[in-house]
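Can anyone check this?
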Amino acid sequence: MRKQVGAWQRSEIADVTAKVVIYEAFVEGRLEAPKHLARSVHDLYFEPKYEEFRPRTIWSLSDAFTSTNLLWTTQIASNRAETANKPPIRI
């Protein structure tokens, strides 16, 4: 696994390649995820929050997808918990 990560960290990709990967994942449906998450992946890749993901590599693109998924699933869990704690609406 460490060798694979190291290889991804050294594998630079062109900006247009990253855009195509994001496009194919969301627009062409190669990834089963809501299409609105494409913007988050794009932003996290091209404007990463952490210095270690600034290089344009496969590793950084993978992190953008992973981070977006974590944010999305956390939001879903939070929404479910919030809904579960609300009293029922009476009409």
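Reply from J.R.: I decoded it. Residues 69 and 75 are 10 Å apart (CA to CA).
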